[in-house]
Amino acid sequence: MSAIADCIAGVISPEVAVARLLLSGLDAPAMLQALDAAAPSGPVQSMRALVTERRAALEDLAGQVARSMAGHDASGPTPAEGVARIAAFFDQAVRHSPEASVALYSLGDPAILRAATQEIVDWLRAEGLLGAGTDVLDLGCGIGRIAAALAPSCRSVLALDVSAGMVAEATGRLAALPNVRVMQTSGEDLDALPEQGFDLILAIDSFPYIVQTGPDTVSRHIQGAARALRPGGALCILNLSYRGDAMLDQADARAWAAAAGFTLLRQGERPFRLWDGNAFVFRR
Fold first, then answer.
1. Quick one: CA torsion of 102, 105, 110, 116, rounded to 10 degrees?
2. C-alpha closest to that of 147 among 117, 112, 116, 105
3. What whole-number distance in Å separates Cα of residue 109 and Cα of residue 103?
4. Does an H or E element contain 147, and which?
5. Which of 2, 142, 233, 261 lies 20 to 30 Å from 168, alpha-carbon distance?
6. Which residues pair with 100 in a beta bridge?
7. Which bin fits 136, alpha (ψ -120 to 50), beta or left (φ > 0)?
8. Residue 161's closest CA among 147, 140, 182?
9. Domain architecture of the chain: domains with CATH
10. String of DSSP letters for 50-75
11. Are strands 229-238 and 180-184 parallel, antiparallel or unpaired?
12. Kindly report the CA angle at 78 between 74 and 84, in degrees rounded to 5?
C-alpha cells in the first residue's frame, strides 16, 4: 500500500501513514494484516506500535471516518452551500474527537497533536514570521490549538472558523488567554477584517476547503488577505489543496501572488517531521 511504502521511504511519518490507512477504509485489524505483509523495517514497526497501542481509538475513528467522509467536501451548487456543508462536517467531527477533527494524524491523541503543533510554531519562528509584536489571524482555527500555542509568542491572535462547533470548542479552550479572540466567519470572504490589521495570516489545513468552493471564493480570500495585512506582512498557507497535484498548486500560488501583489517566498516545501503539510508563504 502506498501509505506504508511512503512511510518506509521516509516520505511521511508513521502517524500520517496510519491516518492515510484510516482514510482508505482500513480498520485496526486490517492495518495490522497489511503491516505483517510488508518487509520488516523500523517504520513498519513504528506503525505497528501506533496501531497496537491505540487500537480501540482507531476502531472508533475508523467508524467515524466511514460515516462522515461524504461530507468532507466543500464543493456544492453555490459557494455558500459548500461552506455550509463543510461547517456541518466539522460540527459533527469536533463532537466526536476534537483532536482528530483538526488533524486525523493525531489519531485522537493530544500528545501527538501538541508535538505537531509545536513543530509548526517553531517553523514560523525560524521563518521570521512570529514575534512579540505580531498580530496574527488564525483562519480555520479549529479547536484553537494553534492560537493557544501562538499566544505566548505574539501580541494578539484572532481565531476564525466557519464551524459553530469548532468556535464553541475553541472559545472554551482559549478563554484564559487575554490576547486571543474567537469568532465565527462566513467562509466566503475576509471583508469583515480591518484594513492592515495583521502581520501574519495563517491558514493551516483550511485553505483546501476554500479551494473546493471555487475560484471566486479563493480570489476573495487572497485579495482580502492582501488588504488585511500590513506592509511586510505574510500569508502562510499550510496545505493549499487536496488535489494531489503539486505543480497545479504551485502554478495557482504564483498566479494568486501576482494578482494580489504578493511575493511568493515558499512554494510547497514540506518542512515538518510529523505532518506532511506543504508550506506556501506570500509576503505583502
1. -90
2. 117
3. 10
4. helix 145-150
5. 233
6. none
7. beta
8. 140
9. 1-67 (no CATH), 111-283 (3.40.50.150)
10. HHHHTHHHHHHHHHHHHHHGGG----
11. unpaired
12. 50
- In single-letter form, the type of residue at position 26 comes to L
Written in H, E and C, the secondary structure of 82-112 is: HHHHHHHHHHHHHHHCHHHHHCHHHCCCHHH
The CA R_g of the chain, rounded to the nearest whole Å, is 19
pLDDT one digit per residue (tens) for the chain, 284 residues: 699 999 999 999 999 999 999 988 898 999 999 999 999 999 999 999 999 999 988 888 887 776 655 555 556 667 788 888 888 888 888 887 888 777 888 888 889 999 999 999 999 999 999 999 999 999 999 999 999 999 999 999 999 999 999 999 999 999 999 999 999 999 999 999 999 999 999 999 999 999 999 999 999 999 999 999 999 999 999 999 999 999 999 999 999 999 999 999 999 999 999 999 999 999 99
What grid cell was written down for 250? 504551485
Q: Which residues, 6 or more positions from 224, have their beta carbon under 8 angstroms from its beta carbon?
A: 189, 190, 191, 193
Distance of CA 115 to the CA centre of its chain: 14
7: helix, strand or coil = helix
The residue with cell 482508505 is 24
How far is 267 from 264, CA to CA, in rounded Å? Answer: 7
